[in-house]
## 1
Amino acid sequence: MAAHALRRERRTSTSLFDVLDAAMPEMSLSEEDNFFLEAVRRGDLRQVKGYFRGKPSVLQTEAEIIKDSKLGRFGLNLAAQQDDYNLVKFLLSQGYRIEEPHSRSCACDSCSAMGSLEKALYRLNGYRALASPVYLSLSYLADCEKELTNKNSRTNDPVYQAFVLNGRMERLAREEYEFKKDYSNLSTRCEEYAVALLNLCRNMKEIGCLMTMPSIKGLAHVQVRTANKAALKLTVLNFAIKNKNERVSMYRYNH
């Protein structure tokens, strides 16, 4: 899997856990909650599972449900930033997902409670987690399993997700000038992930399956005006160019 192919040094110019205090200013953490977060930091799957075994099987109040959701998502965020395959897989199996970070102009209560630097770090670390090859791969597989039981759910393949994230990282590298290097590195990482997936294909038929990418049908900016079936495989190339995935575009050209 591409998640293994792309394991490498993850840290950029900003510390991985800079945002910890800013992420939960309104949450009162118990000793067990802190134990859980520390276990995630260390990558200790056994202790993380122990934390979940000790949790009540049914949460009684809405406040407990909200807190559990926030804590679980934050734990998954930390695990994804570290590309911890086992922890990400386990936390996904518990139903947690990483949410899209709020925009720079967001004025919700949570964002308003943070300073501008705290909010910027929170957003950056959110995208670090979303761009993790491990998270991109495992969240897709987890959603595929969910799709088998829920026909109304829609699963976006990891190449699509990598393309969308890459375009977003390119934009944020221009807007968030204080973290330009960080976002540029994430943009490159998304491109490398997509190319790594293509490199794992064993033949042109498998490459064609990825390059057709049914999940991008209907997007206004990805149109192939032709009845030629072979040309339809260029939909992914159009999408790659639109979202500035230069490595994927070159991959297609060289193959």
## 2
Amino acid sequence: MPLFNEAQNIERTLVELSLLLSQRAYEPLFVIQNDASTDSSLQVVQALSLFSEGKIKVETNPINVGHGPTVWRAYRRALETGQDLVLHLDSDGDLDFKSVIDCVDTLCEGHFDAVIGSRIGRTEPAYRRFVTRTLRFALLTLFGVASRDVNSPVRVYRREALTKLLRACPAESVIIHVLLTIITHKFGNFRYQTVTTKLQPHPALGSSWRSSRRFLGVPTRFIRLVVQSAVELISFRLSLRHRVQLLRFGHSP
């Protein structure tokens, strides 16, 4: 779980997830990558009994590196724990957690390597909806991948499968979930499953954009991310053959 300035949401997120997972006989270990939060997010996590009981492992980035690289670091740390399954979830708590845990159940009960959550009920600004549609078209055009939720933050992987799939992705990627979607579609035994977004009275901008300046109503930080993402996606397409070899033969990227 990546964490950046979610002091108002992180406690509820962790407590509710822990309760639901425990009720279904799972033994969760929360691996949190704090992206140099400037609010009290880290202190809130450290004050939880889950932290003192060793059920939360937190690492803080020395500097803010953004969502994608933070997620990539969280995945790497999660794999190092040796847990059987790795569930990724953002820390803003805007999803129905029962539908998220249903994804874990589906993975355990079936013969899948991964389950990707397909979100419904989302409310987003128009500029984000436009980028999402453009990205979906880009994946179909460049990679032949038709995804129900290109950048879904809800993903459950078996440890062995994630180790293999992550090997084909560049380190510190700014669009790690987009690239994992591509690789999972091409080489993974997976399925999509619906997860429900909690209804919000106002569209959520996301913690990464709240303090950003705006250009024609669009956060400038978001614009920079879109440009970085486009460059990385094209680079990934050009190096895809090499990365497929990494995946097949087990070499480190």
## 3
Amino acid sequence: MYDTSYFKAGHPDEVIAYMRAHPFALICGADEGGKPVATQVPLLFEQREDKLFLQGHFMKKQDHTNAFLKNPNVLIVFTGAHTYVSASWYENKKIASTWNYQAVHAAGTIRFQDASFLLQLLTRLTETFERPGSPSLVQHMDPAYVQQMMQAIIAFEVEVLTIRNVFKLSQNRNKQSQANIISQLSNQSGEASEIARVMEKKYKTNS
């Protein structure tokens, strides 16, 4: 991680809120031989006492699933919008351009869970991401279909041990340059305009 003190969230709650807003995360690890493995899955969050747990499921018999059975150490990467920032928008234009983005790295240990946990997890996943009353909620599905589906997947829970973040939003630029960057990004579409909104909120809050 690009670990520079001024490219950080202002408060731990901001980091957790970012993770919750971007629940489709990349889970990374290594197998017994040190070969890297990774996969992306949607995650649910659970706070127990002062500890954070992340919960999800994998397909069985995949390289990452097999690796995590042997090596429980994982790194989970949460990312969202990102964009190129041209130095031509700075007051001092003859310096390096850069990239603005936000990312959170949560490291911890993974533990696989039983069928009861899996069923509860699938129920909560659909309740979280489906609209209320949706026919695609687990409780509205044929129980035989749900049981058949569950044979191919396995639930897991990660106890988060450390959380690091980089919220790189031109904090190292002066106010005029920041305003120029926001203006330029606002005139673009997609992720650039999203970063502009994040920056605008940040600097209005801090002003």
